[in-house]
C-alpha cells in the first residue's frame, strides 16, 4: 500500500501561509481577484463559489461577475476590459468552459497578461516554456507542489503524462522536463497505452476518462498523480486512475482531496504574485 499524497492538508498549509502574508500587508489596498462566470452551469458555479470562499478565508478581496449565458462576445470582452482597466484588480479569471457562442481563445487573449492568474494567455504560456517568471496554470502548479512536498525526485525518471490539453497536459509536461524528468505525452490517438504505463515510473493522468488507468497496467512502486474528477452512479467522486492502483503504487493522489484542493491554493498564490508585481511596478 502506497503513501497517499494529501492535497487537502497541503492546501491548508499554503492557505495559512498566504493568510499570514496578507495580514502583513501595510499597503493602502489588499490583493483582489475578479472571477467571471458566464451562464448557469452548476459545476462552474460551484467552482466559482469555492474560489470566492477561499479568497475570503485568506483575506484576498474578490468580486464575482455573473453574466447571462446569452451574453455576446463583445459584451464579455467589454467586461474583461473594464477589469483590465481597474487598478484595484490584480487577477482576472474567466471560468471555463464558456457557452458555445463565445470564442474562448479570443477571451483569453483579451485578459491583461499581468492579471492572467490562470496562466492561459499566450505570453504567459511562452514564458513558461522559456523558463521565465510567469503565472503557472494552477492545476499543474499544484501537482508540482505535491511532488515537492513528498520529496519525489524526478531526475531521470520516466514520466508519462496522459492528456495534452493546454490547461493541464502540456504545461505539466514542461514543468516535469524542467525538473529533469524524461517525459512522454500520451493522448486519445496513442497506441499501446498500457505498455507505456508499465514502462513509466511516474504517471500523471489528466485525460478525463474515468478509471482509464488500471492496476495491471502498472509496474510496482509507480508514482500516480490523478488530475481527473468524475461522479459515479452512486454520487461519489473518483478519478482517471482506478483506486485499487494504490495497492502497488509508492505514492498516489486521492480523488477527492488530492490535486483539486491544490488548484485553488495555487490560484490564491498566483493572485498574490500578481499583486506583488503590480505593487512593485
Please characterize this protein's 3D structure:
The chain is of the alpha/beta class and 281 residues long. The protein folds into 2 domains: 26-112, Leucine Dehydrogenase, chain A, domain 1 (Rossmann fold), CATH 3.40.50.10860; 138-260, 3-Layer(aba) Sandwich (Rossmann fold). 40% of the residues lie in helices and 16% in strands. It contains 9 helices and 11 strands. It has helices at residues 7-23, 42-58, 73-85, 104-110, 122-129, 138-149, 169-178, 193-199, 259-280; strands spanning 3-4, 32-38, 61-67, 91-94, 158-162, 182-186, 202-205, 223-226, 230-231, 237-238, 251-252. The protein has a 6-stranded parallel beta sheet with strand order 1-11-8-7-5-6, with helices on both faces. Strands 3-2-4 form a 3-stranded parallel beta sheet, sandwiched between helices. A two-stranded antiparallel ribbon has the order 9-10. Helix 1 (7-23) runs parallel beside helix 9 (259-280), helix 2 (42-58) crosses helix 9 and helix 6 packs parallel to helix 7. The longest helix has 22 residues, at 259-280. It is globular, with a radius of gyration of 19 Å. 43% of the residues are buried. The model has no long low-confidence stretch (mean pLDDT 96).
Describe how the helices and strands are arranged.
Layout: E1 3-4, H1 7-23, E2 32-38, H2 42-58, E3 61-67, H3 73-85, E4 91-94, H4 104-110, H5 122-129, H6 138-149, E5 158-162, H7 169-178, E6 182-186, H8 193-199, E7 202-205, E8 223-226, E9 230-231, E10 237-238, E11 251-252, H9 259-280
Helix pairs in contact: 1-9, 2-9, 6-7, 6-9
Amino acid at each position: 500500500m502506497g503513501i497517499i499524497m494529501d492535497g487537502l492538508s497541503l492546501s491548508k498549509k499554503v492557505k495559512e501561509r498566504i493568510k499570514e502574508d496578507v495580514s502583513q500587508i501595510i499597503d493602502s489596498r489588499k490583493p483582489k481577484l475578479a472571477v467571471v462566470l458566464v451562464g448557469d452551469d452548476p459545476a462552474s458555479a460551484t467552482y466559482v463559489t469555492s474560489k470566492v470562499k477561499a479568497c475570503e478565508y485568506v483575506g484576498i478581496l474578490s468580486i464575482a461577475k455573473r453574466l447571462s449565458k446569452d451574453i455576446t462576445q463583445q459584451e464579455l470582452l467589454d467586461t474583461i476590459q473594464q477589469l483590465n482597466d481597474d487598478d484595484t484588480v490584480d487577477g482576472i479569471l474567466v471560468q471555463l468552459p464558456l457557452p458555445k457562442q463565445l470564442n474562448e481563445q479570443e477571451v483569453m487573449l483579451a485578459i491583461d497578461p499581468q492579471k492572467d492568474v490562470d496562466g492561459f494567455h499566450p505570453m504567459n504560456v511562452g514564458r513558461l516554456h522559456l523558463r521565465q517568471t510567469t503565472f503557472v496554470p494552477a492545476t499543474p502548479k499544484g501537482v508540482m507542489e505535491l511532488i515537492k512536498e513528498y520529496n519525489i525526485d524526478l531526475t531521470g525518471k520516466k514520466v508519462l503524462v496522459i492528456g495534452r490539453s493546454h490547461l493541464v497536459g502540456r504545461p505539466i509536461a514542461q514543468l516535469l522536463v524542467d525538473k529533469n524528468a524524461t517525459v512522454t505525452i500520451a493522448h486519445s490517438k496513442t497506441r499501446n497505452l498500457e505498455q507505456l504505463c508499465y514502462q513509466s515510473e511516474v504517471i500523471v493522468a489528466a485525460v478525463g476518462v474515468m478509471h482509464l488507468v488500471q492496476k495491471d497496467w502498472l509496474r510496482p512502486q509507480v508514482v500516480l498523480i490523478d488530475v481527473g474528477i468524475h461522479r459515479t452512479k452512486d454520487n461519489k467522486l473518483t478519478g482517471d486512475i482506478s483506486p485499487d492502483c494504490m495497492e502497488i503504487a509508492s505514492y498516489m493522489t486521492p480523488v477527492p482531496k488530492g490535486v483539486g484542493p491544490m488548484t485553488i491554493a495555487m490560484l490564491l498564490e498566483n493572485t498574490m504574485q500578481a499583486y506583488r508585481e503590480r505593487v512593485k511596478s
